[in-house]
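[step 3/7] fold_predict: job queued, chain A
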Amino acid sequence: MRQEAAVAAGLAGAFLAGEWGPPAMARRGQACLGDRRRWLFHLAAAARAGFPRAPTDAPLALASFLAACPELTGTVARDRAAGRPLPSVRRWFTSPTTMGPTPWPVPALPTLADLQDFLGLGTGSLAWFADARGWERTVADEALRHYRYRWSPKAAGGARLIEEPKGVLKHFQRRILRDVLDAIPAHDAAHGFRRQRSVLTNAAHHAGHAAVLRFDLESFFASVPAGRVFGLFRTAGYPEPVAHTMTALVTNVVPVTVWRAAPKGPDLAAHHRLGRHLATPHLPQGAPTSPAMANLVAYRLDRRLHGLAEAIGARYTRYADDLTFSGPHRLWRRAPELSRLVAAIVAEEGFRLRDDKTSRRAAGERQLVTGLVVNVRPNVRRHDYDNLRAIVHNAARDGAPAEDRAHLSGRIAWLEHVHATHGAKVRAEFDRISWRA
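[step 4/7] structure written:
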């Protein structure tokens, strides 16, 4: 099929370079191949039937279609069997791509040249930052990589990989985040990484309920492959070359040497699954685009789980990889059934649950949602509150170093946000502290 693919790529450009009708398409195909045989007209007619409108936003899809057409495959097979020269591209046609239909107010970037201008780049630089040669995975020189890597220990053992883009690539990712991703709405059940949403708004949805069930997704960012990112950009209307390049700018493949240095956690199966994710293009944890992109890719997951919750009289929210359901006492009785349904939906949507992080809490137990107690109303844990009060009390009595001031003030501000009365008490004590230079 290699010969067919090469010929199809050339013919796709030729067919799209002018009028979308079999006679004109066939003439451009003849100029492309230097072949005036009748089969080109039949191939053009098949393309016109398969794509009633010229797929100017999808030249790769057209090329794939042509490569599989019997008109092309049969011609190549007959010429090969007869010992005749095989069809080959003699002249390449250029056909600018166009935006497809878009449901969102994203900036129009119909060609790679437009994407280059949008980012302020030249052709060579765009290919470099999109890692067209795939150097990130294999290159040994850290200076040639687009990311810095560090392993961050997890409380339960093992570590998560932070993939931090270097300054210039991070700047481009922030541009894509601000102008493209922010224009696409996430599902209303998503509370993480969104304006006017927080762990507090997430927890408030589940306060005062008889039952709270929590699930965690395994390797949330790494589980999002480049194909799903590409699909989102295509849905936004971007033509295939632009969508491919934008996908490459916001996904990453981890170098082999970085993975070899990975600490192994207690769950070796999960460790190996993470390795498979990191070895292929995925959303990097540490890129500014990854949280918003993960929310958008998880839209259908949120929609299905929200529908499931409504069907059983429960509430559902998601904060990053943390899924929470809450409802009346009957939800507790149906917890095993709900767990099976959630696991099935999560798997169908390309994710996986962490078995060790699933929890069920009734009203008589401490119900935690994204770090806040929700038995009556969202509140900080008693231990955290008592610990902060003790620290501030001791500082008010004995004084404290000035460098601790901002940190303590931030913790109190969070307490004030969650529980104004408790926060006011601690703030009054804080105001009595004598700060030492």
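[step 5/7] annotate
The chain has a mean pLDDT of 94.
The beta strands are 147-153, 159-165, 211-216, 315-319, 322-327, 359-362, 368-369, 372-373, 400-401, 435-436.
exit 0
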